[in-house]
Amino acid sequence: MELRHLRYFQMVAAERSFTRAAERLHIAQPPLSRQIRQLEEELGTELLVRGSRPLELTEAGRLLYEHAIQVLDRVDDIHWSLRALGGSRRTAYPIGLVGSILYGSLPGVLRRFRASRPDLDVRLIEMTTLEQLPALRDHRIAIGFGRLSFQEPGIIQRVLRDEPLVVAVSGDSPLAAEGGPVPLAALVGETLLVYPRKPRPSYADQVLALFRDRGLLPNAVVEAGELQTALGLVACGVGLCLVPDSASGSRGDLIYRPIVEAGITSPIIVSTRAGDDNEATAALLAMVTE
């Protein structure tokens, strides 16, 4: 399997048409069809339901499409990071963060920090809290912002704040019609969407623990790759999802309800290397604290 196979398949899957995909890829349709067929032969399974209009993905095709997006996004990140490194004379300052904290006040802080430090090439890298720990140890990032607490040698973690969680439901959910906060027990009869799927432990385990610690067991649990995918599935009527309150405005077609019980929160945590005397990190921490 080569990257071009994944790019071709991703385009066909996104367009649901060989003709439109070929036009966007600037190649003829017959070679594109052959490349997809070769990919199917290599994988030993069909990826598309041929004859359907528009094209539909098989179960294997949907799985490959999800992974292809992640792989190709990562390849593009590597490409542009290396190009930026080669063309920049500023000192690189990589920051690791989980996507869900970008809905709150942190973007404004990071914007101020970048403006105050023109000598730094501030790079924001999306990664889970679990991924941030080895990245800190290996000096691949200078600081990390996440949501999980770990006892890790050489790493210092500090809770900045505990953010309340709200439940996101579709407009036709029975929970959407009621007003006011909803008890956690009222959610267990619905399908619970959690994210990310991996690596684990993650925010998904944090949410599941909120139910388990109160003696509750959701009727069904479906794992999604990330926050926006989970909310998209909620909009499709698949189930409901607990999200940070700051993310409650990210989709206007959903209803967001607060939770009755106290302590239904997710911490925002900053992680740094123990003994790190980097003055840029100290300046960023001062801004965050302020």
TrEMBL record:
Residues 1-58 form the HTH lysR-type domain. It comes from the Bacteria. It holds the Pfam family LysR_substrate. Keywords: DNA-binding, Transcription, Transcription regulation. Belongs to the LysR transcriptional regulatory family. This is LysR family transcriptional regulator. It comes from Azospirillum endophyticum.
